[in-house]
Write a structure and sequence with these properties.
This protein has 71 residues and is mainly α. 45% of the residues lie in helices and 0% in strands. It is built from three helices and no strands.
Length: 71
Amino acid sequence: RMQWGQVRGFRGYTSWFPSCTCSEDNFGSGDYAEVFASWQVGPQLGWRSSRAGPPDPAQMRRLMPYLTVGS
């Protein structure tokens, strides 16, 4: 989680999961979900993470080990 945040450029400590039934858009888990969805489906879904913007191709290459764990 810390490495993901570093690659994505999160500033300071970021909670990974919300402690409520609210949206994940401002949490690490939501950012991970958005990056994964963008990788699988493409950018046509839109972008909802408020932690960071969509990854560029270079950042996506750095994130691939986290997205393909166990494959």
